[in-house]
Structures are given as structure tokens and as C-alpha cells.
Design brief:
mainly alpha; five-stranded parallel sheet; elongated; about 5% strand; ATP hydrolysis activity; Rossmann fold; 39 helices; single chain; about 950 residues
């Protein structure tokens, strides 16, 4: 008793959920395919949207969600269709006979036709054919109070039977039969259209194969139907001669018709699943069901309500089977050969052909008129997504406007009405839903998180224009709210520039870059570098303002005041920085730690000997590829950034950072496109030259060929004396790309080799902290590489960096102080900047009277903080550049004190020569140790102090 009492509420809850699901199903099929696909995830994550019941495995049938779907889509919707039919028929007639007949017919047509469609075609098709066909075809039954094409009386006779025309029982209204045929074609086409639109599985068969499968499906299925009917008709004629009793003959005849349906079900199941035993069982069950529905028909001589209900049950089952099987047989055949879409077309054509045969034999209308209207019915059904959107557009527009007005009147903390907007339940609507962008902007002020989710959801739908417009306006409002330079520096974190396919995307990217540059400027530790970086940002904003003034784009007017506001804020902030420095008489700190110097930074000094060597080598037409080799942080990238002002104007340096986007590409298309972008940017920056752009789209088919053709166009655009210097910084980054198998080593390096050998106007300059010897297998591609060694600064260059890094530098050095800086850094450019930056910081903390002169004591006092501040530089040496044995050697030598020298034997203790020798060679190659006399010492005192600490 307790179990039963507990199960009843659960069953009622299950039944209530199924009733609600039935309405959701109709909405999903007609308007929201994603709802259907999401529900299928509860049954099985791998279940395709167009699955049929014949596709299911045992595990699927264990899902409660599947049974709920079948209950809602077939049983409950059969009830709704029956009630809808009765209601609509009652509007036109008061005859209870018509209500009984049409109600019973509608229920069983929807139930049986839908189930057979779900079994043989797809559940989408079955539910749609059951609902739409059940309503459309049942109305003709109710309006005429007569079943059209009752199989037991007409169909087998109509289609190619050798029976006299007088024996054909034509329905009371031939127009009724004709209209029913048109509705059948319309229903099948509409169901096929809905099924195809919900399906997202790509079909890869060729167009010829799909067309061929349609033709084969129509021909074979028509022939099979013909032979089945001929077989049944032969048996029927034999039975008519043997049986004199009309009632007995009628039962035998109905049984033969039931057998025909069973055979058809059996053949379809074999085509779908290749499971013969299940096909025989299913065919037997269908035949038995139809025979059982036939038995009561002969028990009533007079027509009454009960007899009409029984007739409606029988004819509903029979015609549900008829209309579905006429479609399913050619569908299954064409699908087996090609794909479901070919099956849908074959099913429509084949069933339409059978209906045309009915019309010809029944002589209800002329063949020409029938063909025209059948084509019209087909086109209306197959184009359902287009015309339904157009039909309901005025109504959903009015509905959306009402929602918008109601939302304006609601309290800000009240639940939003946005989910009721048609954009979220009508995914097929491709016409723009005007006002949606304003709705999103209004809601963003109240519920930003919910609006962000809504914008993301809409960006995947035909209404993405509204999401884009709303996002642009929200971005504009956020940018307007940046009232301080700090706020400007954080603005890029909220911009959607990369997500928009609009002319405003480029504008938002510019503002995003300006915001990032502002953030980088504020991260500069010295006021001088902040002001320098902010000056560059102001220049970019000035350029953007000029572009916005000239622009005719609709967004220029919206964003120009924002750019002007930013420009004013940056200008005021820079002026305030300058005034603060002046008032405190601080020494501006121009030194830049940890990032390469650009061509715009005055602090870059020297390297004239290296640039002269590069220039001399480039003048030789036979110049091999160059390798700019030097240890980390010796200024390789800074030199490459400044080659434009160090080399003659006839040499065009094109800088490509291989640690940037190029090495992050997932394929050749992205790799070559990112290289081209860097080349274009560098030509513009160094020489104000606009090289021809490379279209990314053309790289997809044959990337290397099109990239090579693009290089041809670059050469053609050059003047006669101009030479391209393609500089590839951090070329060793390619090693990681090759190791991940993202790019093929032979293809990429082979391309560079081809450039070296066949393009004399292209010179190749590689840069890195690894020599080609460390990548031996690359040697066959980069033949005869000429190494350009970049080491420490010359003494005069180092002294200039210390005492006069920029014009008007306020700090003076005693002779011993500047010599001490050169001594402990070994004129290493990064270490000079690191130590001198700490000296400036130290001096700014002193009294004004002591601030402007750096002494030897100041230098020594700044070294510990420089070591701490530059710990990542030194830790990289210990952790990434030397082996464990090498680090132990450095620690032991460092403990011996400044300038200490240890012999080979002293350093080698307690290691074997096999272990010690490669470790020592690595330390020498890394320029950490240097030989002196019979021993070795640290090259750089500051490096020694790190390993000593």
C-alpha cells in the first residue's frame, strides 16, 4: 500500500511533466531547434538530432527522458490533436457523427502514423507528421463525415489492380480526395523541412550520389509497392472466386491488406537496421493490429456512434500506416545509399507519385492541375522556415514592443522579461527584430551579468546584429566612464573588439591598444619612462582623432568625443607628473629594465660596430644568412628594433618576432599570415613603406605557393637599389613548434632556404642565444650561416649609457663611480641599466643637496638592491642556462671572492672529466666564465655576487 501510495504522486508528476513537454516539443520543432538538441543530451550525449527509434540501443531505452519524449510526442499529442480536430469540426457542423468519426480518426492517425514515422524515418519526422498531418487530414474527415481513401475499400483497388472501374468505391466528394492528397504532400514536405533544419550533421556524399540515390529510391520503392499490391490483388481475386460469402471475403481481403502493411514494415526495418528477426516481429505486430481493428467493422449493419468510432479507429490506423509507409520506404532506401537528406527528397517524390496515380485513377481532377497544386503544396511545405518567419513577424514585433514597455515600467530588481523576447524562442527568425539592441542596453544597466549572457547567446543566432549593436554601445558607455588615466589603462579588459565583425572593430582595437599602452606606461617604475611612454600614447591618440575626423563611418561621431576625452586626461596626467618631478627636484629615471628598447627610445646607445658589420656583409650579393648571436639580455632585440636608424635607407629591415603570434599558429596558414603582418608593420614603422598586404583567405588552399607569390609582389614594389633584410628574432622558438608537430620542420626551413638561394634582394638575419651548432639538423637548410657576435658594450658606449642616457640627464658621476659601474657589469647593457636604475632610485631618496652627484659609495650601496631587483635575470642563468654541475662550479668559484681565479684542476674537483668538461664548455659558451692564465674566473662581477649570495 505504501509503495502504491508513493508511486501515484510520482506518476502524476511524470504525467504533468510530459504534458508540459508536449507543448515544448512543438515549440522546439517549429521555432527553437537548440531546445530539441539540448533535450537529447539528457537521453544520450552522442544521439544525433535526426535519430529514429530504429537507431537506438538497449541503453537508450533505459532513459526516462526517452519514454517521456515518446509519451509527450505521440500519446499526449494524439489527445491534443483529437481535441483540436473535434473543436474545429464543431465550428462547421453540428453532426455528432462527424465529431465521433473525426475524433477517433485523428487520435489513431496521429498515434500510429507518428510512431511508424519515428521508427522508420526519425522521431522529429514522426512527431511532426503526427501533429500536422493528424490535424490537416482529420479535418477533411470531419467536414465530409467520411474517411477519404479507406484502404480496405479503395486503395488496393485504385493502384494498378485488374478490377473493373465499376467496383471502385469513390468517396462522396472527389474534391475531398484531391484536397487530402495535397495536404499529404504538404505535410510530408513540411516534416522533411523541419527535420532537415534541426539536423546539424554534415553530409559528405557527392551531389551525383545524392541525386542517384533519390532516383533509385523512387524507382525501386515504386516497383516494390507495385509488386506487393499485385501479389495482394492476386490473392484477393482468388479469394473472391472461392468465397461466396461477402462478409468472409471482406475479412480475408482486409487481412491481405494488413499483410501488405506488414511486408512493407518488414522491408523498411531491414533497410534501416539489417535485423531480420526484429523486422518479422514488427511486421507481424502491425498486421495483427490492423486485423484486430478490422474485426469489429463487420459487426454493425447500421451506422451509429459506436460504429463510427470503430470505423475512425480502423481508418485512422490504416491511413496513418499508409501515409507514413509511402514516405518511409523510399526514404530508407535512399538514405542507405546516400544520406538522410536524399532520403527525404526520395520520400516526398515517391509518395507524391503514388498520390498522382490515385488522382489519375479516381479522375478527381485534371492531371495538369493536380501537378501544379502538388508542386505548390511541396514548395509551401519545404519552405516552411522562411514563410512562417515572415507570417508571424508582425505579431512577434508587437509582442516584443509590449515586453520592452513593460520592462521599462518594472522595478530594477524585478526578474527580467527578456527570456520571453522572441529572439530567445524563435531561432528561425532571420528578419531583424528592431528594438532588441535598445532592450539589451537598457537591461545592461540593471542586470549586467544576465545581459552579458544574453548577448553571447544572441551572437550565435540571426539576431547577432542586435548583440553587436548593443555591445558597441555598452563599450562606448564604458569608455565614457573612464575619467582617470588609471581607468583608461584598464579599459581594454572589457572591450569586445576581437569579437565584432563590423567597421567599428578596428576602432575598438585601436582604443584597446591605447589602453594597453597606457597600462604599460603606468607600470614603468620611473617617472621619466612613464612620461615618455604616455607621450607616445598621446601621439597615437592624435592620429586616431585625425582618422575619426576624416571618417564617414557611422560610429566615428559616437567615439570621437571619447578619444578627445582620453587625450585630455592623458595630457593632464603627463603635465601633473612633470610638475611633481619639478617640485620635488627628482632625477628622472630613464632606464628600462626587462623589455627590449624600441627605435623611439633615446636611451639606446652604441652597437655601431655591429651595425657596420651587418651593413658590410649585406653589401655582398653573395651574402649568406646571418646569425646575430649573443647571450640573453645582451640587447639583440633592442638592436633589431633600432636597425632602421642604424642601417642605410636602402636596406628595409622587416622584423619578425618568432616568439610572438607566428610561433603560436596552429597551421601554415596562421604561421605565414602572422609573418606577413609583422613584415608589413615593420616596413611601415622603419621606412614608412606600405607593402602589399597578404589576404589570409588565399593561404588556406596552398599556403606556401601563395606566400611565395606574395614575396614576388613585394620584390616588384621595391625600388632598384632597395634590399629587404628579413630579421627573425628568437628563431629557436621554432624548435618548440616543430616538437609539437604543429608545423613541419622540412617545409618551414625549406621555405627559408628557398628565399636565401633564389631571392637575392631578400637577406636573412636570424637572432638568438643558441648557435646553429646547437641545432645541427638545421645546418642543411641554413647553409654557410655567418655569425655576428653581440657581446658587451664598448667602453665609450657603456660610459654614455651611464652618464648621459638621455639628453639633459641631471645626475653626474664621479670618475671612480662610473668606472665602478663598468667594472662590476663588464659593460653588459642590461646590467648597466639595472644598476644605474637603482642608483637613481637611491639618489632620489637622499637630500636635495646630495642628490645630483653619484659617488663610489652610492654604486656599491645600490648593488644589493640591483641583485634583488634583477633576480629573474640571474635565476634564469642558474635554472635554465647551465647544468646542475655547472651551477655547482659557479657557486664554488663565486665563494672565492671578487676577481678570484681557479685552475682547471681546482674547478674539476670532485668531478670526472666526462662530467666536468661539457659543463665547463657550456659555461664558457654562455660567457659566464673566461680563461685567464692557467685558470678561469667570472666574466661579470655582478653575476658572481648573485652566485655568492
Amino acid at each position: 500500500m505504501n509503495v502504491s501510495a508513493q508511486s501515484r504522486p510520482r506518476f502524476r508528476h511524470f504525467l504533468l511533466q510530459s504534458c508540459l513537454l508536449s507543448f515544448s516539443l512543438l515549440g522546439w520543432l517549429l521555432f527553437k531547434p537548440t531546445g530539441w538538441r539540448r533535450y537529447l543530451q539528457d537521453i544520450s550525449p552522442n544521439l544525433p538530432p535526426d535519430f529514429a527509434l530504429s537507431d537506438l540501443q538497449t541503453i537508450h531505452w533505459q532513459s526516462t527522458h526517452l519514454w517521456q519524449l515518446l509519451l509527450a510526442g505521440h500519446v499526449i499529442w494524439a489527445i491534443w490533436v483529437s481535441l483540436i480536430t473535434i473543436s474545429m469540426v464543431s465550428l462547421f457542423t453540428n453532426t455528432t457523427d462527424a465529431l465521433f468519426l473525426s475524433g477517433a480518426y485523428a487520435y489513431f492517425f496521429t498515434l500510429i502514423g507518428g510512431l511508424i514515422g519515428s521508427l522508420s524515418v526519425s522521431v522529429i519526422f514522426g512527431i511532426t507528421i503526427g501533429i500536422i498531418g493528424g490535424i490537416a487530414l482529420s479535418l477533411t474527415v470531419g467536414l465530409y463525415n467520411e474517411t477519404v481513401f479507406s484502404m480496405a475499400e479503395n486503395i488496393a483497388i485504385v493502384v494498378m489492380l485488374n478490377v473493373s472501374e465499376e467496383s471502385i468505391q469513390i468517396p462522396q466528394g472527389t474534391l475531398q480526395a484531391w484536397m487530402t492528397i495535397l495536404l499529404a504532400v504538404f505535410t510530408a514536405s513540411l516534416a522533411a523541412s523541419i527535420m532537415q533544419n534541426i539536423t546539424i550533421t554534415p553530409y559528405r556524399h557527392s551531389q551525383q550520389r545524392q541525386i542517384g540515390s533519390v532516383v533509385i529510391g523512387v524507382i525501386i520503392s515504386s516497383g516494390a509497392i507495385y509488386f506487393i499490391i499485385q501479389f495482394i490483388s492476386t490473392l484477393a481475386q482468388g479469394a473472391a472466386k472461392l468465397l461466396e460469402n461477402g462478409g468472409v471475403f471482406s475479412f480475408v481481403y482486409d487481412s491481405l491488406i494488413s499483410l501488405m502493411f506488414g511486408i512493407a514494415i518488414f522491408l523498411i526495418w531491414i533497410l534501416q537496421t539489417l535485423r531480420i528477426g526484429q523486422g518479422l516481429l514488427l511486421g507481424f505486430l502491425v498486421s495483427t493490429l490492423l486485423i484486430l481493428s478490422t474485426l469489429p467493422l463487420n459487426q454493425f449493419e447500421d451506422q451509429n456512434s459506436l460504429s463510427l468510432i470503430i470505423k475512425g479507429v480502423h481508418d485512422g490506423i490504416e491511413n496513418g500506416l499508409l501515409y507514413t509507409l509511402l514516405f518511409a520506404f523510399p526514404y530508407a532506401l535512399a538514405k542507405r545509399i546516400a544520406n538522410p537528406w536524399a532520403g527525404l527528397v526520395a520520400g516526398i517524390f515517391s509518395s507524391a507519385g503514388m498520390y498522382i496515380a490515385f488522382v489519375v485513377i479516381l479522375k478527381t481532377q485534371s492531371l495538369e492541375l493536380t501537378l501544379r497544386f502538388l508542386l505548390l503544396a511541396f514548395l509551401i511545405g519545404i519552405s516552411f522556415p522562411a514563410w512562417i518567419s515572415l507570417l508571424i513577424y508582425p505579431f512577434v514585433s508587437a509582442w516584443n514592443l509590449i515586453l520592452y514597455r513593460l520592462e521599462e515600467l518594472r522595478a530594477p530588481d524585478a526578474p527580467s522579461l527578456l527570456p520571453l523576447h522572441s529572439a530567445f524562442w524563435d531561432e528561425r527568425q532571420r528578419l531583424p527584430l528592431y528594438g532588441l539592441e535598445s532592450y539589451l542596453v537598457m537591461l545592461a544597466e540593471r542586470k549586467p551579468a544576465e545581459t552579458e549572457q544574453a548577448i553571447y547567446a544572441l551572437s550565435q543566432t540571426p539576431q547577432k546584429w542586435a548583440a553587436q549593436e548593443a555591445q558597441i554601445e555598452l563599450d562606448a558607455r564604458r569608455l565614457e566612464q573612464c575619467q582617470t588615466v588609471a581607468a583608461i589603462s584598464k579599459a581594454h579588459k572589457h572591450l569586445a573588439a576581437g569579437e565584432l565583425s563590423s567597421p567599428v572593430s578596428a576602432l575598438l582595437r585601436s582604443l584597446s591598444r591605447i589602453s594597453r599602452d597606457t597600462e604599460a606606461a603606468l607600470l614603468q617604475e620611473s617617472t621619466y619612462n612613464q612620461r615618455l611612454a604616455l607621450d607616445a600614447v598621446e601621439e597615437r591618440l592624435d592620429g586616431l582623432l585625425r582618422e575619426l575626423t576624416r571618417s564617414t563611418e557611422p560610429y566615428a561621431l559616437r567615439f570621437r568625443p571619447i578619444a578627445e576625452q582620453w587625450r585630455q586626461q592623458l595630457s593632464d596626467y603627463g603635465r601633473a607628473l612633470g610638475e611633481a618631478v619639478e617640485s620635488r627636484q627628482e632625477i628622472s629615471n630613464p632606464y628600462i629594465i626587462g623589455i627590449p628598447l624600441t627605435e623611439h627610445q633615446e636611451i639606446f646607445v652604441g652597437r655601431g660596430d655591429v651595425s657596420e658589420q651587418i651593413e658590410r656583409l649585406l653589401l655582398d650579393n653573395r651574402c649568406p644568412p646571418l646569425l646575430l648571436y649573443g647571450q640573453r639580455r645582451t640587447g639583440k632585440t633592442s638592436l633589431l628594433n633600432n636597425l632602421g636608424r642604424l642601417l642605410p635607407s636602402t636596406i628595409i629591415p622587416l622584423f619578425v618576432d618568432l616568439q610572438g603570434p607566428a610561433s603560436l599558429a596552429k597551421n601554415y596558414e596562421g604561421f605565414l599570415y602572422n609573418i606577413s603582418r609583422a613584415m608589413l608593420s615593420s616596413a611601415k614603422r622603419h621606412r614608412e613603406i606600405q607593402l602589399p598586404a597578404l589576404n589570409r583567405e588565399i593561404l588556406r588552399d596552398d599556403p606556401f605557393t601563395y606566400f611565395d607569390e606574395w614575396l614576388d609582389t613585394i620584390e616588384q614594389s621595391l625600388e632598384s637599389q632597395q634590399t629587404i633584410l628579413l630579421t627573425l628574432d628568437e628563431f629557436s622558438a621554432l624548435e618548440h613548434v616543430f616538437a609539437k608537430n604543429l608545423l613541419d620542420e622540412a617545409s618551414v626551413l625549406g621555405m627559408f632556404r628557398h628565399i636565401i638561394q633564389h631571392r637575392p634582394r631578400f637577406k636573412l638575419l636570424l637572432s638568438g642565444s643558441h648557435t646553429i651548432d646547437e641545432f645541427e639538423r638545421w645546418a642543411s637548410y641554413l647553409i654557410n650561416v655567418r655569425i655576428v657576435h653581440l657581446s658587451y658594450l664598448q667602453a665609450s658606449e657603456a660610459l654614455k649609457l651611464i652618464e648621459q642616457p638621455v639628453q639633459g640627464f641631471a645626475l653626474r658621476y664621479e670618475y671612480n663611480a662610473s668606472q665602478r659601474v663598468m667594472e662590476v657589469t663588464r659593460c653588459h647593457p642590461a646590467l648597466i641599466q639595472l644598476l644605474c636604475a637603482e642608483i637613481v632610485t637611491l639618489k632620489n631618496r637622499q637630500h636635495i643637496h646630495e642628490r645630483r652627484l653619484a659617488t663610489l659609495e652610492n654604486v656599491d650601496a645600490a648593488i644589493p638592491s640591483a641583485l634583488q631587483h634583477g633576480r629573474f635575470f640571474f635565476a634564469d642563468i642558474e635554472n635554465n642556462q647551465v647544468s646542475h654541475i655547472g651551477a655547482e662550479i659557479l657557486h664554488r668559484l663565486a665563494e672565492c671572492g671578487e676577481g678570484a681565479i681557479l685552475t682547471t684542476e681546482e674547478l674539476a674537483k670532485p668531478y670526472t672529466l666526462e662530467v666536468f668538461t661539457p659543463a665547463l664548455q657550456n659555461l664558457l659558451q654562455r660567457e659566464l666564465l673566461e680563461p685567464l692564465g692557467k685558470g678561469y674566473r667570472f666574466q661579470v662581477e655582478m653575476v658572481r655576487r648573485w652566485f655568492c649570495g
